[in-house]
Amino acid sequence: ASIGALFSKYHNLIFALGGIFLLLLGVSILLGMHFSLPFSAHPKMKVQGAGSVFILGIFSAFATLCCAPVLAGVLALSILPGSIFWGGVYALAYVLGMVFPLFILAYFMDKSDLSDKLSFFKKQVSYSVASRKIEITVAELASGIMFLFMGLFILYLAKMGKLAMSSDYQV
């Protein structure tokens, strides 16, 4: 409850910081800077490209739009039985319900070679910024522009005070 009150108190500031982060992320992508998490594939695993991972990320982003209210319900249900076992069962069911459809989607995307059909996003785009040549893919260009617009939109909403959790704008 105290963490919720803290987030509620600094709601606009937190969103403004998130908007600034999105802006910086968009600029870094558009400048050709790449940040990636450490990843190692199994030697027998065939990797055909990042298309399925990108699409999986898009679908998981849509899936998480509703996860916050559901997660609050799951946490409440996890506490009610008064048992670590049943609380763990509720939490495990929630996690499996969120990720299992994504695994099924990724499996069928790999089997249908959908990533080959989306090869347009792998094409290179070249441009210069301050006499520095930058080469990124169409997917990175789209991602960078999307991050910029989302960051600007969040900063606009924070400036106008339309991010409050009880605002009429969100209703």
What's the short version?
It contains seven helices and two strands; from the N terminus they run H-H-H-H-H-H-E-E-H. It has 171 residues and is mostly helical. Strand 1 and strand 2 form a beta hairpin.
Shape category: flat
Strand content: 5-15%
Largest beta sheet: what is the strand line-up? 1-2
Instruction: Average the pLDDT over all residues and give the rounded result.
Output: 76
Radius of gyration: 20 Å
Helix/strand structural class: mainly alpha
Order of helices and strands: HHHHHHEEH
Question: First CA to last CA: what distance?
Answer: 23 Å
By DSSP, the count of extended strands is 2
- Structure annotation, total helices: 7
Uncertain parts: none
Helical residues, percent: 55-70%
Q: Biggest sheet, in brief?
A: 2 strands, antiparallel
Task: Report what the structure shows.
This protein has 171 residues and is mainly α. The chain has helices spanning 2-9, 11-30, 51-63, 67-79, 84-111, 114-117, 138-160; strands at 124-129, 132-137. Helix 3 (51-63) crosses helix 5. The longest helix has 28 residues, at 84-111. The radius of gyration is 20 Å and the shape is flat.
Give the key terms.
single chain; mainly alpha; 7 helices
How do the helices and strands line up, and which of them pair or pack?
Elements: H1 2-9, H2 11-30, H3 51-63, H4 67-79, H5 84-111, H6 114-117, E1 124-129, E2 132-137, H7 138-160
Antiparallel strand pairs: 1-2
